Amino acid sequence: MQRSKAAAGVEVKRVIGALCRLLAALGLDPVPAPEAFRRAKFGGRPEGDPFWQLLSSILHMSGIISSETSSQLRGELRKLVAAGLWQSGYHADWIYGADAGSFCSRDLLLALGWLLAKGVLETLLAGRVEQLDQTLLSSAPEKPEFSADLELDAASLRRLQWLMGHLRHRGRTLLSTIGARTRALHEVLSSSQVCSAAPSAGRSSAALTEDCFSLQQLCELLDAYVSWKQVEKVFWTWMDSVADRRLCDLRDRTSSQGVSHSLGACHQGKQRLEEMLRGPAQQQDVKSGDADWAVASLPPSLSSRLSAPSVHQMCRARLQAEQRLRRPSEGPHGGAAAPGELPAPQAAQLLLQAETELLQRRDRRRLANRKQLQGLMGSLDQQVFIAL
Amino acid sequence: MSVVTVQLGQCGNQVGQELFDVISSDAQDGQRKTYSSVSRERFFRQTSQGDFEARAVLVDMEPKVINHSMNRAAKSGRWRYAEASHFSQKQGSGNNWANGFRVLGPRHRDAVEELVRREVEHCDVLAGFIPMMSVAGGTGSGVGTFVTQCLRDVYPSSFVLNHLTWPYGTGEVIVQNYNSVLTLAHLYQLSDALLVHENDAVHRICSQQLNLKQISFGDLNRVIAHQLAGVLQPALTPDSCGAYSGNPLGELVSALACHPEYKLLSACSIPQMASASIAFSTFSWPALLKHLRQMLIANTKMEEGIDWQVRPPPASAGRTSSLTAGGFNASLANLLILRGKDVYSAETGGFEDPAIYTSWLPPAEALSLWKSPVPFDKYEKSATLVSNSQALLRPLDDMVRKAWNMFASRAYIHQYVKFGISEEDFLDSFTSLEQVISSYAQLQC
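YS: structure for the whole thing
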C-alpha cells in the first residue's frame, strides 16, 4: 500500500513535470517547480507565491486580459489575476475579496486547473506556433478593417477583381524572378565548387541560424505538448484530489466552528455530529454493495439525505453506551446533570475524538472508492458514455 | 528573360517572320549595346558559330509558308530560324476549326510540345509565350487554340500573350465567323491577354498612311510587326528600376489585363509613314501625344482622318450606350510606350484624364508608361499605345452577330459536328462572348 502510494506520488510528479516543461516551452516565465504544485495542494501562504506570476502571464498571453488592463493594474498582481479569472468565468470567494482568511495557494492551483480545463493551453500553443513557424501564413487575418464608406456595388467588385488579378500576375512575375535568381545562384555555386561555398554561406547567414533556432524551439514545444497530452489524465485525477482537499478543508472549518460554538451545549454538539456522521455512514453502506459505488460521488448534502438509519442508530447507541459507562465516576462532580448529558469539556473531547476517527475512516473509504473507480474506468476505456 | 514565339498557321508564320525581321534590324545598331543585347537575349539565341537563331517554334499543316518564311529569314543575313524548330504536315486543316482543335492538334501534340520544350530549355529564364495566329483560319485558329491550351497546361506559371489577326469584315472564308467565335471563346479562358490586329484597320493604314497602291499581306504584316515590335522591344518600365524590363510579357499583362472579363487589347502607333518621307519630317512629343490621345478616344487606328469632334463625356452627365455610332471610346487600361529623343521630357498628362477611363479604375492604376531613349525603327520619336478599351467591341459584336445568324439556320454546323464540336459547344462559346461584349459595353457606365 505504502509502496504503491509512493509510486503514484512519483508518477504525479512526473506528470506535473511534463506540464511545467510545456508551460516553459510556451514561453511562460517563471514556471513553478513541480514541488510547488505539491506544496500548493496542502495550502500555504499565497503571498509571493509563484502561481500569481504564472496565472497573470497565462491570462495575459492568452488575451483574456488586455494589455491596457494590465498596464492599468501594474503592480497589483492580485487584482489583475482576479479580474482575469473573473473574465474567464471563474468564480471564487477570494476573487471578490471576501473569505480572505481561508484563502491559500491551493485556490490559485485550482484557478490554474480551471484555466487549463478551459483550453487555454491550446490557445497559447496556437499563438506560439504561429510566432515560431515563419513558413506558416497567419491563419487568421489581422482584423480585416473595412472603411465605413466602402460600397459593395458592382464597380467595387470589378475593382476588387482587377486588384486580385494584378496580385496574381505579380505573384507569377515574382516566381519567375526567383527562378532566375536560383539559376544564377546555382551557376555561381557550381562554378566555385572547389572552395565549397555552401556550408560557409550557411554558417554566415544570421537569418538562417535564427530560423533554425526557432524551428528547434517549435519542435521542443510540440514535443512537450504531445507528452503532456499523453499523461494529462493523471494530472486531472490529481487535480480532483486537490479540489477534494479544499472541500474537505471547508467542511473541517465549518465543523470546528460548530464545536467551539456548542461547547456549552453538548446536546447540540451531538446533533451536529450526527449530521456529520451521515456522510461517512453512507460510504459505509456502499462498502457492502459494489454496484452502488456511484453514489459515493454524490455531493455530501444529497448523500446525507440518502443516509441509512441503521448504521447511524448503531453509532449513536455506542456513543450513549460510552456515556453511561463514564457516568458513575463523574457522579460526584456532575450529580446535578440531567440523565443523558455530559459535562462540557469531556463531551467536547469525546466528540473531537470521535470526529477524527470518523474522518480518518471516511478518507480511507474515499481513497478506496477512487481507486475502484479508476480501475473500472480503465477497464471501460473503449466504451463511450452517452449522457441520457 | 526570354520570350518564345509560337507561329501557327499561314498568318502566324508570316507575321512572326516579319516581327523577328523588324526586331533584328532594330537591335543591330552597334551604338546601343545594352538595348541590343537585351533585345537579342529576349528574342534570339546565339549559336556556337555566332549566328542568331529566333526563339520560335513554327507550326503549320502545310509546308509551303514555313519554307518560305525560313528562306526569307536566312536571306536576311542577320538571323535565321533553327533547322529543327518547325513542324509541318502535307495536308491542311481545310479552314475547319474543329478539325484543327479536335483532330490535328491532339494528333501532333507530342511533336509540337517537344519542339517547345527544346526551345524553352535554351532560355536562361523564360518570361512567357507569344502564340501568333489568325483568328479565323483553320490551322492557325484550331491548332493554335489547342497549342495554347497545351502551353497553359505544361507551363502554368508562364505568361501567355496571344497575338491574333482579325479577318477582313467582308470575309475571306465563309465560316470565318464560326472559327473566330470558337477561337476567341476558348482563348479567353486560356490566355492572359489577347492582342488583336484587325486586317481592316491595318489595310487602311497601308492605303492612306503609307500610300501603298497594291496592298499585299506582306504589307499588312509589316505594319503589324512594326507595332508589335514597338511594344516588345526593351523599355524602361516603372518596375525595372532604371534597367530594361526583365519580364515584358508579365508587365504588359499586369498593366493591362488583370480582370478576367477584360482581355482584349488593341495597339496603335504614331507616327506611321512611308519610309521615303521620314527623312523630311520632324516630330514633337506634344503633337504626337495629342494625336495619339485623340486616336484613342475616337477609336481611330491612324493619324489620317481623326475625328476631332469626339470628346470624353463630362463626368456628371450620364454616359450613353457605347454602341452608338461615332461614340467615345472608353478605356479600362492603357499602356503608353514612348521611344526616341527627349523621351523624358514628354508630357503625358492627357492620358491621365479620369474622363477617358472607366469609373472603377483610377487613372493612376489604369495608365502605365514605358520609356526608352533609343529611337525605334528609323523614327526619331515614336509612341505606341496598347489599350484595353472598347475599340474591339464593335467588330466583336458584328462577328458574333453574323455567326449567330448562320448558326440560327444551322448552316455548315455538320462540318464541325463531324469533328466533335457539338451545337452545345457553339452555344457555350456564344454565351461566353456575349458576356465579354456586355462587360465591355458596361465600361462607360
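YS: worth flagging: DSSP finds 14 helices and no strands in chain A.
IM: good catch. Also The two ends of chain A are 38 Å apart (CA to CA).
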